[in-house]
Write a structure and sequence with these properties.
Strand content: under 5%
Organism: Weissella sagaensis
Order of helices and strands: HHHHEHHHHHEHHH
Helix content: over 70%
Shape: globular
Keywords: Cell membrane, Membrane, Transmembrane, Transmembrane helix
Largest sheet: 2 strands, antiparallel
Structural class: mainly alpha
Pfam family, one: BPD_transp_2
Subcellular location: Cell membrane
Strand order of the largest sheet: 1-2
Distance between the termini: 49 Å
Number of strands: 2
Number of helices: 12
Radius of gyration: 20 Å
InterPro entries: ABC_transp_permease
């Protein structure tokens, strides 16, 4: 039971990555590789600040801002430098590796003995693993409300149109470059926040902790879409990302339970995502075959 509760908590805080990638992958329709650099950037920033006596709340907010700045760099390379988005993300991700080493002063840094978001006194009285769930729920609710309200505004609608049809957006007088940069900043800010939360929960930050995070974020989105195939409103779509993230964590727990090694998790994650991506197509073929047989 403790492992299952832990999986729920992990799913909640990791869903922040799903939110961030949803903005770029689904709404802007771009493949942003900055994710794998922004995630450890948020972790490194938060852990270093907390280690130096800064409040965990302030450190987490600064980590979010650091992620947004990384998104800004990628956005400028893409829109002003005319570098393909995939390459722009890789360039930023590569540069962030050195930035993280500068921030931490070493390859990894521990939070041993330091108070973080999950170890405040009022949370310590809760049963094991429940502090992560409580903090995760609060943060996820705030992010969901923020995104749902933001995307209803004129600015948010302009952002959506930019992803749907850039030519039409420009014909309506929308500055698509600005919208793209804004989207990358908000998305990477959320991913930086996710890095800060995961690092505080784990008790350390490492420069290599971003490897494979894009697969985890994509899995949250795709699994949620596979489970809920009907047309959904935006708030409902965000909720499916949370459910997808938790479900993904449950699958990893099952994989470990049946005897797989922790070193195999990256491989298992890639396989899960691959199957989730193929499932809608397989489902469509199955429905077509059933229709033809009936005909």
């Amino acid at each position: 039971m403790g492992i299952l509760i832990s999986a729920i908590g992990q799913g909640l805080i990791w869903s922040t990555l799903g939110f961030g990638l949803y903005l770029t992958f689904r709404i802007l329709d771009v493949a942003d590789m900055t994710v794998e650099g922004t995630f450890p950037l948020g972790a490194a920033t938060a852990v270093t600040l907390i280690s130096n006596g800064v409040s965990p709340i302030i450190a987490t907010l600064v980590a979010t801002l650091a992620g947004s700045l990384a998104g800004l760099v990628t956005g400028l390379l893409y829109t002003k430098g005319k570098i393909p988005i995939l390459l722009a993300g890789i360039l930023t991700m590569t540069a962030i590796y050195s930035v993280n080493l500068r921030i931490m002063g070493q390859a990894n840094r521990s939070l041993l003995g330091k108070t973080n978001l999950f170890s405040y006194d009022f949370l310590r009285s809760l049963p094991q693993n429940f502090p992560v769930i409580v903090v995760g729920i609060v943060i996820i609710i705030l992010i969901t409300i923020f995104l749902a309200q933001f995307l209803k505004t004129e600015l948010g609608q302009a952002f959506i149109v930019t992803g749907d049809n850039p030519k039409m957006a420009r014909s309506l007088g929308i500055n698509t470059d600005s919208m793209t940069i804004l989207g990358l900043m908000v998305a990477n800010g959320l991913i930086g926040l996710g890095g800060a939360l995961v690092a505080q929960n784990n008790g350390f930050a490492d420069v290599n902790m971003g490897v494979g995070t894009i697969v985890v974020a994509l899995a949250s989105i795709i699994i949620g879409e596979v489970i809920f195939t009907d047309t959904l409103t935006l708030p409902e779509r965000l909720i499916t990302i949370i459910i997808g993230s938790i479900f993904y964590r449950f699958v990893l727990v099952i994989v470990l339970y049946i005897g797989f090694n922790a070193d195999d998790l990256k491989l298992v994650s890639a396989i899960i995502l691959g199957l989730a991506l193929m499932l809608p197509r397989l489902r469509s073929k199955l429905r077509l075959n059933t229709f033809l047989k009936r005909g």
